Protein: Amidohydrolase family protein
Amino acid sequence: MERCQVVGATVVDGSGRDPVRADVTVEDGLITRVGASGAPGERLDAGGLTMTPGLIDAHVHLGLSSPIHPRFSFRISAAELAADIFAAAGATLDAGFTTVRDTGGVDGGLVTTIAKGKVRGPRVLSCGPVQCQIGGHGYYGAEWEPTELWHRHHVPGLSALSMMSGNADELRRNVREAFRRGASFLKLCVTGGVVGGHDRLTDTQFTVEEIAVAVQEAAARGTYVTVHAHNDEGIRNAVEAGARCVEHGTGLDEATATLMAARGVALVPTFAVVEQLLHDTAGAGLDESTRDRVLGVRERMAEALAVAKEAGVRTGLGSDLIGPAQDRRGEELRLRANLETPMKALVAATKTNAEILGVAGEVGVIAPGMRADLVLWNGNPLEDPRLFADPANAVLVLQAGRIVKDLR
Structure:
C-alpha cells in the first residue's frame, strides 16, 4: 500500500515511554506521522488493539529448524531441510518478529531469498557459519569423522553451521570466507555450550590473540564480533580482544560486567532455549543427556542478567530456539517480563536490540522516518505478557508498511 493510517490503537512505541492512543500514518513503507492526520489513504481500524514496533530477536538459528542429530548425520534431505527453514522463517514473522539476527546456521542464499520476497520471513542479519575452534563448540560430526570433512554438512546457499579453525591464520581465512559469502557480522564460540557435541560449559576456546584477529577483520569491514560464551573466563577474553556483544553470558561476574559496561559491550541472554531444552529435549532432536547440561543454567543466567543490569550493560533479548519448535519465539519476552517488567522486555526486544544490531536508525521504535514494521496485539501484553508468547495474539503484522499477516 502507498499510504494508510492505522487508527484507534494503543501505541507502545518501544522507547519505554507510557502507551498513548494515537493513529499512525504509513507512506511508502515508512512511518510519516504518529498522531491524528487527515491525509487521504486507506484506514485500518485497530480499535481495542495494542501496537508495538515489530519485534527483534537478536539470537536465532533458522538453519537449525530440523532435529539436530539427524540433520548432521545426513538423515534429512536438502529438500526437507529447506522446508523446515522456510517454515521457521514464516512462523517467526507470524509471531510478530520482523527482524532477526541469525547467529549461525544459514548461508547467504537464504538471506537473499527472504529479502526478495520469495519466502515469507523477517529481515535477516546473518553471520553465516559460526567460527569455531577445532574440537570446540559448534562441531557435531562423529568423533571418528575427520575435521576436514565437516564442510560437507553444509548445503551451499541454504545452511552452513560452522567453520573450524586450528590457529589464528586459519581463523583469518575462515572469517574472510564468511564475509565473502554474505555475513554482515561475525560470531565466534569462545566457550563450550549447552548443546555441545564434544565440549563442556567450562571449556574456554580461542585465545585472546585469536579472537582479536576476527575483531580486526570485522572492523576492517565496519562491523563487529559477537561471541557465544557461558563461563566468565571466556567472556573476559572476548571483551579484552574487542568483541562488541556476548551471547548467553551465563557465568558473568561483577568485575567482567563492569568491564563490559566500560567498553560498551552488550549482552544477549537467551532464556527460551533453556526452557525448551528442560521441557522438550527430544523435540529439539537431542538426547536426554543434554538436559543434564541445562540444569542450573536458567538460575545462573538470571543472576547474570541482574549483574549486567546493575553494572549498566546494554542488554538485549534473544530466544536461541533450535529444532522444529520455533513458532513460539515470543516466549522469550514472557520469560524476561517475569524477571524484569513487560515494558523492559519489550524495549529489549525493540529499541535495545536495534541498537545492538546496528539498525537503530531504521527499526526498533515507532516514530516518523522509521520503517513501518508494526505489530497489532489482541489485548495488552504490558498487562499480560503471556500474549507475546502466543502467535495468535499478533493479529496484524506490517513489514515495511506491507501487511504480511492479518487475522482481524
User: Anything to note?
Assistant: The mean pLDDT is 94. The longest helix spans residues 78-94. The CA atoms of residues 192 and 203 lie 5 Å apart.
